[in-house]
## 1
Amino acid sequence: MGVRGRLAAAAVAGLTVLVTACSGGGTPASVPTSAPTPGAGTTPAPAAASDALPGMPPVTNARNVYADAGANMLSDAARAAKPLVYVPHTKSGEVRVIDPATFATVGTYRLGGELQHVVPSWDMRTLYATDDILNKVVPFDPVTGKPGAAIPVQDPYNMYFTPDGTTAISVAEAQKRLVFYDPHTWVQQGDLPTPDCAGIDHADFTPDGRTAVFTCEFAGRVAVVDVARRTLLRTIDMPTRNTHMGPQDIKLAPDGSVFYVADHDQNGLWVLDGAATRVIREIPTGHGAHGLYLSRDATRLFVTNRHEGSISVLDAYTGAILTTWQLPGGGSPDMGNVSADGSQLWLSGRYDREIYVLSTADGSLIRKIPVGNGPHGLCVWPQPGRYSLGHTGITR
């Protein structure tokens, strides 16, 4: 969630938001909440082989698009990186770097502005801290863990890379547009206005790489984009249009059959068909559903429930809820990722100045680490996979 565009509301309701859960609207009768048989009632995703976006690494397993991002399946570039966790802060304007072996903070870099996410580049050779207030990204060398000179980028609340690696996409939340850049020279390639997608936020891509789905947090809908043509195909309204803190993170199911969309104020997930044409059901999880992360074998989906201090664990294929992990003493689990070996889930405590490290085996809390003010889109690095689609490390 960005900060601009809602400062006035935050001044009135900020403290209340931190300690209370938002209530979602009622579930429409036309949207079932039970998990169907895998593939039932879904529109198949576009073909992921011959029809794939040119230049995109081929999908090697149609049943699991994340098959090449399994435990410790590191590329040469990722293998060269120093294992570190990068924590950007929206309030204190710093990136803190944590050694995952000792849980100690080994670097604090005061970069100013409003740092939202630390994003791995498509080729996994650079990490970028995005700053949507000062219109810059700050590159970090993952080999050394050190920052470099800032690069001018328009309103980079979040950042993604097209699956063929040719374009970096700045998700310009405040400007309601996507801005396209050459990821090597950072020369602007063009932009795509999305005036009906207030709060444009997170994204994921179909298995063939040709279609991207962006969430619209303040419009209660998603925007579906043709990647190659850089055009808006359609917008899809959620059955309940939450426009305060509505659709947040989005994740493609391993078999490409559906997209899961976390809706903070609905307290759960909406499920889109794999072709991104309609909402087919709803999955209640917990208050403030926000971040979505897959287990390293892609069989489980972890959903952070930010306003109740819990993580819902779902079957990644069917959406069935397997269990819920409660953080001892509560907290505000927000964004993060799974460790390279799959044993740990790292999450920022957005409103509590802390980081949570959980066991992915049973959800037990391994460590709670104090950090600065407003920890947000932390990046656990390195990550397995052949390439990165961006955000906090969506790899395939």
## 2
Amino acid sequence: MPAHTALPFTHPDGLHRQGRGLIDQGRPTDALPLFQQAAALAEQGEAQRAGNPDRLGRILYDLGYCLYDLGRVDAALAEFQRAVAAAERGDGRGQVHWDNLAACQHLVGTCLARLGRDTEAQAWFAQAAEAAARGDIQGRVDHEAVGHSLHQAGACLARHGDAAQALPWLQQAVAAKEQGDADARVDPASLGASLHLTADCLYALGLVEDALAWFQRSVVALERGPLDGPVSHDDIGRARLRIAQCLVDLRRPADALPWALAAVTAVEDGDAAGRVNLEGLTHALQAVADTLAALGRFDEAMDWYRHAAETAEHGDPAGLTATLAAGAACLRRLGRMDEAAAWELRAGTPVG
């Protein structure tokens, strides 16, 4: 939410401005009492019929965001709900700023989702999308914000295995994000995330060929990266890996192999901060091995199973058993029974 021009620090707007400056410096603990004082003064103004509910809503929004940043999610939820109530009353002229209301509603949903209350969160995200679609005070619609709320509404359903119900929300999210923000700027990384989750739902519904097309679209978007900031190669790797999985399911392992190899390369490049997800890397390495095994190239596959097992030992202990079992099966295909038995012993699977 944009802040109003600051006044002296004894005025709620001045305190609000000072608090936002501290937030920008990464000092939420120091900002918190300023936001609390600003909110108290703004509420006093309202009680004396001299206030502006929309201004109060903006302060409460930042107060809630500060609490959320400090990990106090329950307290943040309460402030975001108060921010919604204030924003619904409008500005000093009674005019509702729908974009500000949508931002508050979205963060109520965010808190509820963080607390595991997805059913309630989904309803709030739906309200936020509806409010954002009404535009700002000039009537301009930020379709990216609409799409973001639609995406989160669909994600709530997807997390509970309701792929069929989640799908239309996510498809609407993609359509909204493709229109861009209030300045018609499209965020490819955000769009790619919605394309990927849509594809996940299609795959869960058994629509593998449709899912393949959506995963391919997600890769194209993710490779372009966000509007501001570095590309997350980890996200690209996950999408490439899902393409490989779809192609294997469609009995096209030769087509899947280059996608699996490209997934490994991307995951090794890390996320937007350059951090490598070893669990994701283990999965990508094993996908290459599985694909080579499906092509009958067992000697090559074993090299990749070894690499996957070594990576799992360092970063994905829970996934090590599956990798060892797959490697053992490959060794048996090669007739190397003693080695296979050793891998099975490490995996804790029966020898035979």
